[in-house]
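EI: anyone free to look at a 112-residue chain?
SC: sure, send it
EI:
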Amino acid sequence: MYKIYIKPNGCIYHTRQCKSDPDPGEGIIVDRMVDLKTEYYDNDSVVPRPEMDLIINNLSISNIPTGTEVRIDEDTEIVKDGVLDLEFDLPGEYTIYFTNFPYQDKEVLIEV
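SC: here you go
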């Protein structure tokens, strides 16, 4: 038996194994260990977090869910129209991080 602790949006932020329900009213009892990175709590059950199906075409990334936070190095921005056009001053490899709950976080490596 496991107990999961969730935020109001369904994000599971903590899980622990338990033999019984020691803290009634806190957390939710489930029958298996959950993966915090790939699952969330929705409609009274643990379900898979959807994946972002990004379309990468050179320095343009599209099909980004609206509201996704994108981070490159220390810079972040929120995608409002589903498209991210990239420009870099120097050649090299850049890791781009995408976050938008309930989607699974995603990272993409771009070589310039």
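EI: The first strand starts at residue 2 and ends at 6.
SC: 👍
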